[in-house]
Design goal:
By secondary structure, this protein is α/β, with parallel strands linked by helices. It is built from 14 helices and 9 strands. Helix content is 46%, strand content 11%. The strands form 2 sheets. Strands 1, 2, 3, 4, 5, 8 and 9 form a 7-stranded mixed beta sheet that branches. Helix 5 (119-129) packs across helix 9 and helix 7 (158-164) crosses helix 8. Zinc ion binds at residues 82-83, 230, 234, 270, 330.
């Protein structure tokens, strides 16, 4: 067990490294979608390395600290898991329990509550199952049937796409940008659903295989895990009009409260994107804090609704003290 509690007091602010995970599952078998995932063994090894240099604290302890109660070890870490995927019950939960650790699990409420496969995840499965050129050609064909004369490239800001997805090939960067940021939501969802159906079958049949259920979340919460919000519909918040934004955060809060009880809960912005209106909506809905995808360490009592996180793929560099901007799986 980690034990880096310093004797005596330091003049330095305690420094919390918040790590962000998405898929944690073994490599895809033939015929499965090759999702960009961390292997459970690699996850376990990463926990080992992290625990050797920092005390891994519980989300509640961190939220207490940010609210002005209690202290923190000088060098600590916090584990967070986005998107409410089944991996978190199958692989992560048992590993955390074995080590006596807690983590924060951020779930979007629409898929769990309404048995709906979400656009982002249908897209991940399509990206993991098809070559990018094939995927783009199919998407363009579906787009042309609905909006004659339009192509994916009409919905891309090239420079932004290349800088945001700098770790991707050019076509994957352009495609991912169009889907997350460029295309109107309805059009995008309709096309992704059609393509998903063609390649993977009925999206409704995938919900149970893909996402956590309320029973699993209740079991995790009862065992000391923190279940927080990750929106209702997983849209890019700064793209939503103010009324839809408020509705989305409130729905997320209300459903979590109805299903898992009223208690302090944190939030993670979908795609890490937020602005002042997003902060306000999340706070007004009832959440106590919110996590971004800005890379970096949190020194001292950082603003509660702008907590930085480091993607697990960049963790080794962060542990070596050379944090740099990388995040791979949040879109
Ligand atoms: Zn997400």
């Amino acid at each position: 067990m980690p034990d880096s509690q310093a004797d005596g007091h330091s003049m330095c602010d305690p420094e919390c490294l918040v790590v962000m995970y998405h898929y944690v599952r073994p490599p895809a078998a033939p015929g499965e979608s090759a999702l960009v995932a961390m292997d459970p063994d690699a996850f376990d090894r990463q926990l080992e390395r992290l625990a050797a240099s920092r005390e891994i604290i519980s989300p509640d302890r961190y939220l207490d600290f940010l609210a002005g109660c209690g202290g923190l070890p000088e060098r600590c870490a916090l584990l967070t898991f986005d998107d409410g995927v089944i991996d978190h019950y199958r692989h992560v939960f048992p590993m955390l329990q074995r080590r006596g650790l807690s983590g924060a699990f951020f779930v979007q409420t629409d898929p769990v509550e309404n048995q709906r496969m979400e656009a982002t995840h249908m897209n991940h499965m399509l990206l993991g199952g098809l070559e990018i050129d094939e995927l783009m050609a199919e998407f363009d064909a579906a787009l042309a049937r609905r909006a004659p004369g339009r192509t994916l490239s009409d919905f891309v800001l090239r420079d932004k796409a290349m800088s945001l997805y700098h770790y991707e090939s050019e076509n994957r960067a352009l495609y991912k940008y169009a889907v997350a940021f460029g295309l109107p939501f309805n059009l995008r969802d309709e096309i992704l659903t059609e393509m998903f159906r063609r390649h993977w079958g009925d999206p409704g049949d995938w919900v149970r295989r893909f996402y956590l259920s309320w029973d699993q979340l209740a079991e995790m919460q009862a065992a000391g895990m923190h279940v927080g919000g990750h929106s209702h519909g997983h849209d890019v918040y700064p793209r939503l009009p103010r009324d839809r934004l408020a509705q989305d955060t409130r729905r997320c809060w209300d459903i979590l409260t109805a299903r898992l009880g009223r208690r302090r809960r944190a939030f993670a912005y979908p795609f890490g994107r937020y602005n002042l209106e997003s902060i306000e909506a999340v706070r007004v809905a009832g959440f106590a804090a919110a996590f971004t995808t800005h890379d970096g360490l949190n020194a001292g009592r950082v603003p509660r609704f702008e907590i930085a996180r480091t993607d697990c793929v960049a963790l080794d560099a962060a542990l070596a003290g050379t944090v740099n901007g990388r995040s791979h799986a949040h879109a």
